[in-house]
Amino acid sequence: MRIILQVASWAALAATILAPLLFLGNRFDLDQTKWLILAATAIWFVATPLWMGRKVGSAA
User: Fold this and answer.
1) Quick one: which H or E segment has residue 8?
2) What is the share, in percent, of the chain residues with pLDDT greater than 90?
């Protein structure tokens, strides 16, 4: 479960960074960029606290 949360967290962080770059490259319009950043931020805020700061193998 921890690995899935870490992958989701890192993917959301990457999407948060990638969306403005795609906007600057004229691949996305402003509305698409806003929605992608909003969704990625929400996913990051949900996924990251569930795995970060816990030792590997510790029970919840």
Assistant:
1) helix 2-24
2) 83
Q: How many CB atoms lie within 10 A of CB 28?
A: 18
What is the maximum span of the chain, computed from C-alpha positions, in angstroms? Answer: 46
DSSP code for 29: -
The one-letter amino acid code at 30 reads L
Percentage of residues in the chain having pLDDT higher than 70: 88
Question: 34-52, pLDDT tens digit by residue?
Answer: 999 999 999 999 999 999 9
Give the position of tokens 């805020």: 45
d(CA 24, CA 2): 34
Q: Where are the domains of the chain?
A: 2-51
What is the DSSP code (8-state) at residue 52? T
